[in-house]
TrEMBL record, chains A, B:
<feature type="domain" description="Topoisomerase 6 subunit A/Spo11 TOPRIM">
    <location>
        <begin position="260"/>
        <end position="430"/>
    </location>
</feature>
<dbReference type="GO" id="GO:0006265">
    <property type="term" value="P:DNA topological change"/>
</dbReference>
<dbReference type="GO" id="GO:0042138">
    <property type="term" value="P:meiotic DNA double-strand break formation"/>
</dbReference>
<dbReference type="InterPro" id="IPR013049">
    <property type="entry name" value="Spo11/TopoVI_A_N"/>
</dbReference>
<dbReference type="GO" id="GO:0000706">
    <property type="term" value="P:meiotic DNA double-strand break processing"/>
</dbReference>
<keyword id="KW-0460">Magnesium</keyword>
<dbReference type="InterPro" id="IPR002815">
    <property type="entry name" value="Spo11/TopoVI_A"/>
</dbReference>
<feature type="compositionally biased region" description="Low complexity">
    <location>
        <begin position="9"/>
        <end position="19"/>
    </location>
</feature>
<keyword id="KW-0547">Nucleotide-binding</keyword>
<feature type="binding site">
    <location>
        <position position="317"/>
    </location>
    <ligand>
        <name>Mg(2+)</name>
    </ligand>
</feature>
<feature type="binding site">
    <location>
        <position position="265"/>
    </location>
    <ligand>
        <name>Mg(2+)</name>
    </ligand>
</feature>
<dbReference type="GO" id="GO:0000228">
    <property type="term" value="C:nuclear chromosome"/>
</dbReference>
<feature type="active site" description="Nucleophile">
    <location>
        <position position="179"/>
    </location>
</feature>
<dbReference type="InterPro" id="IPR004085">
    <property type="entry name" value="TopoVI_A"/>
</dbReference>
<dbReference type="Pfam" id="PF21180">
    <property type="entry name" value="TOP6A-Spo11_Toprim"/>
</dbReference>
<comment type="function">
    <text>Component of the DNA topoisomerase VI involved in chromatin organization and progression of endoreduplication cycles. Relaxes both positive and negative superturns and exhibits a strong decatenase activity.</text>
</comment>
<protein>
    <recommendedName>
        <fullName>DNA topoisomerase 6 subunit A</fullName>
        <ecNumber>5.6.2.2</ecNumber>
    </recommendedName>
</protein>
Length: 436, 436
């Protein structure tokens, strides 16, 4: 079939640009020669099976991964790590909080909330956990104090609203929440901030509060799951794929015969993989957040990783932002540090496109882009990040990027043919176990 | 059921904010009183059935709507209107073009392409068609001329690439196309521009060239279709919905028992409607492009409208941008004017949220936002647009917006309860046939 396609491609080139001779540069012919290096798929699949099996053994059994153990073993630990809770549990936590406030009022002491500090000085990276977490440090938010009266009121109101949402069994957005009492909240930043406070106070994730973010991500491949009770087969979602649901707690019954999860930075690469039904040749689950990862996609990836225990391979642009996207998936973003246990997926392998690939695959000079000053600044900052420092291979790649001052997009591989990504580059990467 | 929910809501409010008495503002109680105005669903459904039946009669039979007739009746018309073509037809058009160039070269005259001008001075709004179209005015692009040699080469190259893509039966993005010959194209703006030229030269849509845009839109509701052969039932897509496919030509077998299409501006409102399974109460298809409409969503909406002949009701923010979004769906954007026949959906009804709704539904003052100077400028510009001028109701609403200098988001309705949108506002709108 690849032979047939090659002929079709060559024929088309000759037919299409009648004014020019078919031009075959040395880079293109080298790129084509890599095709002959590919072993039969059965051999590559054996490699992937070994990877998947190693991955499933390295994780402890059960849904609670090692990263959650911290909070569960020692609730009075020095760090705040929130966890997913069901509606009944969140509701009863709210009830306890409100009951305590009522008792305090009745005893003549007024009421006050103990709110964990989410200041950035309070956010630390824990190498053992490989995540950013929040140091446990609470401050009082008394109602009978001019400085905190308004915020205490907002806190009470948000608790009440979340309680109502949970009782109705629905999900709402942050914006919805804000609009229920614009007069009190003033602007959305205030209700959003208090919502995060409430999440920390109750020790549960924001999605447990049924306040969801908008969705951006899509998924296709060897995966079935139920979205709000509807059975979804992601091998039958055409090229468009299935939109990743905003409310992760409505996702259940995750099943898969995939050997790995392929995390893709960009929409265009996702489309290529979906149209070529890459997952039928190499059983995998393909997902993308279309750029900067949103909360829903991060929650979904983590659920897949924890429940299916599959290796996660990432395909991102060869630039500092590709690495930054990996860091958000792996270590979380700073302003959601208290929720990092539920939002992060540890141990993602950097499959490509890596700076060393540019020479290895002889990506033509004109398809590489010079790094801007800002790129270089971000790259240097990444080099100082703990999660990069931990992985020697990543440090080397990043140093090479900064030395050559070149970056490239995944689509640069299109210079060897539109399907080079799915027909040569990725199969060869998998065959050579070329991830770090 | 609504009674039960009301009680649950009241109970939650009392339980949640222990420090305050349940507060019922007059706006909220009025909002709640509207619930009693609702007739039984059967009665509202009868209204919708009448609407759907009127809509299907008003359109001519067959897939080709009146808006396409222009190009088909008179190919030498004064306007360029491209049409969807299958791969074989596009391929043979390219062959003819290239053959003509070859003959011209062999006869010693070199070669030249006749390229329609896409300059904005060439783009006009046709009231009869209610769309922006391109005036037919071609310029020569000879290869043997220093000024046009490069562009003629790029044109030949793009024709060749499109030919190759069509022969392979795949779809690619504009970015992929650019990367196949960075050296020649220089930057993506050039290959993109020539792609639009090629589209006009061949008289076919960009999606007929198999060059697709990235997808943003999602759909749920009473709709089934095939995406690349996979049967999709949009009532079984959970809360997340089905991602609208980037390549409309892979969509087939569209079937529906819906009575109308509900076009939603924003993700949050879409989520509310999906979670509440609004389409089960009032059979409809719900879709959103999550803000500014992308090409894939516009193509998809048009296909639904043309094949199903359903009325389209729009739910957008009450601000100038809400109206602007409607204008893009209805009349197209200026830089794609040559493709407006395939991208636009005429006769969309403005259901809400309309400026007059703010008082009618007594949306609290604090949930309305003051219009900025920029908002007012955009609003005044919209007032000058032909497509607004045509509809007296729209003019009045827009004038009211500019007079009151107030805008409001769809979510402002959340101030009456998270499900007010789906339980009261929309049913009442449908019952009262309150669209313009």
């Amino acid at each position: 079939m690849s032979e047939k396609k090659r002929r079709a491609g060559a024929g088309a080139a000759a037919g299409g640009s009648a004014s020019k001779k078919p031009r075959v540069s040395s880079a293109a012919s080298y790129a084509e020669s890599l095709r002959s290096k590919l072993r039969p798929d059965a051999s590559i699949l054996a490699t992937l099976r070994a990877l998947a099996s190693a991955c499933s053994k390295s994780e402890p059994a059960g849904a609670s991964s090692s990263s959650k153990a911290l909070a569960e073993d020692d609730p009075a630990a020095n760090y705040i790590v929130v966890a997913d809770q069901d509606s009944a549990s969140v509701t009863s936590r709210i009830n306890r909080l409100v009951l305590a406030a009522a008792r305090s009022i009745l005893s003549g002491r007024g009421f006050s909330f103990a709110v964990p500090s989410r200041a950035s000085s309070n956010q630390v990276y824990l190498p053992d956990l490989d995540r950013i977490v929040l140091v446990r440090r609470e401050s009082a938010r008394p109602f009978a104090n001019v400085a905190t009266a308004r915020k205490a009121t907002i806190t009470a109101r948000v608790l009440s609203l979340v309680h109502a949402v949970l009782r109705r069994g629905i999900h709402v957005t942050k914006r919805d929440l804000f609009y229920t009492d614009v007069k009190l909240f003033g602007d959305q930043a205030q209700s959003d901030a208090v919502l995060d406070d409430v999440s920390c106070m109750l020790g549960c994730t924001r999605s447990s509060l049924h306040v969801v973010a908008s969705e951006k991500g899509v998924v296709v491949g060897r995966l079935t799951f139920a979205d709000d009770g509807d059975r979804i087969d992601c091998t039958r979602m055409g090229v468009g794929g299935k939109a990743i649901p905003p409310n992760i707690d409505r996702v259940s019954g995750i099943e898969s015969d995939a050997l790995f999860i392929l995390l893709v930075e960009k929409d265009a690469a996702f489309m290529r993989l979906a149209e070529d039904r890459f997952y039928n040749r190499f059983p995998c689950i393909i997902l993308t957040a279309k750029g900067q990862p949103d909360v829903a996609t991060r929650l979904f990836l983590r659920r897949l990783k924890v429940e299916l225990k599959l290796p996660v391979l990432a395909l991102v642009d060869s630039d500092p932002y590709g690495l930054k996207i990996l860091s958000v998936y792996m270590c979380g973003s700073k302003n959601m540090s208290y929720d990092s246990a539920n939002l992060t997926t540890p141990d993602i392998k950097w499959l490509g496109v890596r700076p060393s690939d540019l020479d290895k695959y002889r990506v033509p000079e004109q398809c590489r882009l010079p790094m801007t000053d800002h790129d270089i600044k971000v790259g240097k900052e990444m080099l100082e990040e703990d999660f990069v420092k931990q992985n020697e291979g990543w440090v080397k790649e990043l140093e090479m990027m900064l030395r050559t001052r070149q970056k490239a997009e995944i689509q640069a591989l299109s210079s060897f043919g539109f399907q080079y990504l799915t027909e040569v580059y990725l199969p060869l990467k998998l065959q050579q176990e070329d991830w770090i």
